[in-house]
Amino acid sequence: MKILSDSKSKLYHYLYGNGMPSIKLFKSARFLDPNQFKNLTQDIAEYSVHIKGLEECQEDWIIYCNIVKECSLCDNVVDFWNVNKKRLRKLYKIAEWLLYFTTNIAECERSISKYNNILTEIRKGFTHTSIINLNFVNFNKKSEFKK
Predict the structure, then answer these.
(1) Long-range residue pairs from 8-17, CB within 8 A, at least 24 positions apart, any chain
(2) What is the Cα–Cα distance from 67 to 47, expressed in whole angstroms?
(3) Looking at residue 146, what is its pLDDT?
(4) At a CB cut-off of 8 Å and minimum separation 6, what does 28 contact?
(5) Are 45 and 28 in contact (CB under 8 A)?
(6) CA 101, 30, 36 angle in degrees (round to 5)?
(7) Does residue 81 surpass a pLDDT of 70?
(8) Predicted TM-score of the model (pTM)
(9) Which of 6-10, 45-49, 54-58, 60-64 has the lowest mean pLDDT?
(10) How far is CA 143 from the centre of its chain?
(11) What is the distance of C-alpha 76 from the center of its chain?
């Protein structure tokens, strides 16, 4: 059926053809799940390309790799990070942000698209706080100004 064929091609483009604005971020964030990390590359440089600040977590990364090697299957990813937040302080801050990043609502999809417009090559230096503040201003402004 043509309808299903079109849907299949759109879904393929969305998931594998970088049609989703933040697909690279989400694919990189898979390392946060210890169960998946065991089967992924353990080279921090692979993930640092798409996750800002990760390159500063070298010490935590080594500890994380060792923890994952020693642990059995993890039932709850959030519990894993809460248990290890004192041992992996820098990495925990990144995990906390990415794990609680809502990804299943339309407003979030729109904000990700806006981030791609905001975070151009000349604006890569935004701090985490600057992005939060800019997001707050952007989503709380009125669409129409009353005179």
Answers:
(1) none
(2) 18
(3) 45
(4) 46, 47, 49, 50, 51
(5) no
(6) 135
(7) yes
(8) 0.59
(9) 6-10
(10) 28
(11) 18
